Amino acid sequence: MIQVNRVSKHYGSIKAVNRISFEAKLGSTTVLVGTSGSGKTTTLKTINRLIEPSEGQILIDGKDISLQKPQLLRRQIGYVSQNNGLFPHYTVRQNVAIVPSLIGWSAEKTLQRSEEILEQLLIPMAQFGHKFPKELSGGQYQRVALARALVTRPPVLLMDEPFGALDPVTRQQIRQELKSLPGHPERSIVLVTHDLAEAIELGDQIVVMDRGKCLQQGPASDLLFKPRDSFIKSFFDTQRFQLELSAVTLEQAIHYLHSNQHSTSTKIETRNLTLWETITLMEKENLTSLYYQSSSGQIFQLTIPILLSCISQIKAKYGIT
Ligand code: ADP
Ligand code: MG
């Protein structure tokens, strides 16, 4: 677990980061969002001591990181930086092997684990191991950067706009793969992005930053349905329709639905999709309705108007329009 306690970073009179606090639990993803210059990168870099805070304290697994040697600290932290720099004159295989060799893994262990993580990220070693970064597509390049950060199974993963340069479809694919990677429950992830859909899809907890300060933090549904003020509300307004549907899962939505025991021959969905994923699925498969079986075994008939009405009811409950 990572605990960031009232961390600030001042450059002369500029308060790049101003008393930021959050906790990133094991198995969770914390997302820092905010406009350019709001202090996201600076905050992230204090966690691996690429930047030393002017004040405040950071603990990883209860230990104060300022008392640890930066080189040793960084060995337990996977890092994908904003301009993520794979070494251009190293092959894919060599890039992924950098940290394992630093910590003294045998060549055999390094190769075995590199093959495994590259395979999981759809970059088979046999096909890509000997390639140089400039021979990769944008998506492949980012996958290798991610493999390099994850190869030693670090308990902490820091990512700074890791999918920023990719097209939306590739972004979405890599996000899905990241979520389904084995080892997710043993890791705390802190991710920086300015893409709100990405924040809501990946973040168990979202920290909204502006001019160095945290304006509000919490799960996506809190930020959307219980915004602290008009700034937070307007922050999400541009994509509000999709974001709201992405922030609510079927299991949360059933509180607003009537159970329907008339099972039919139509397929019964048991995955706890978000409302947005459900609507996307219905459109793709041309379904006018879909049956969802909740974790308690009840069956609900869903149509797109019913799903949209859940959002209206949630908003009515919190008194927002
Ligand atoms: P973000 O990642 O949210 O875009 P940064 O953390 O990179 O923001 O920067 C936050 C603020 O701190 C910006 O106003 C930036 O200009 C300032 N800043 C960052 N690094 C330095 C530095 N080394 N010296 C002076 N100002 C800096
Ligand atoms: Mg940045």
What does it look like?
- Helices cover 39% and strands 22% of the residues.
- By secondary structure, the protein is of the alpha/beta class.
- The chain folds into 2 domains: 237 residues, Rossmann fold (3-Layer(aba) Sandwich), CATH 3.40.50.300; 71 residues, CBS domain Like (Alpha-Beta Complex), CATH 3.90.1280.
- Strands 6-7-8-3-9-10 form a 6-stranded mixed sheet, with helices on both faces. A 4-stranded antiparallel sheet has the order 2-1-4-5, covered by helices on one side. Strands 11-12-13 form a 3-stranded mixed sheet.
- Bound molecules: adenosine-5'-diphosphate and magnesium ion.
CATH-defined fold name of the largest domain: Rossmann fold
| Radius of gyration, in angstroms, nearest whole number | 22 Å
Contiguous runs where pLDDT drops below 50 for at least 5 residues: none
Please tell me what the overall shape is: globular
CATH homologous group name of the largest domain: P-loop containing nucleotide triphosphate hydrolases
Give the arrangement of secondary structure elements.
Blueprint: E1 2-11, E2 14-24, E3 29-34, H1 40-47, E4 55-60, E5 63-64, H2 70-75, E6 77-80, H3 92-96, H4 98-102, H5 107-120, H6 125-128, H7 138-150, E7 156-160, H8 168-180, E8 188-193, H9 196-202, E9 205-210, E10 213-218, H10 220-225, H11 230-235, H12 240-247, H13 250-253, E11 268-269, H14 275-284, E12 290-293, E13 299-302, H15 304-318
Parallel strand pairs: 3-8, 3-9, 6-7, 7-8, 11-12
Antiparallel strand pairs: 1-2, 1-4, 4-5, 9-10, 12-13
The structure holds adenosine-5'-diphosphate (ADP) and magnesium ion.
Magnesium ion is lined by residues 40-41, 82.
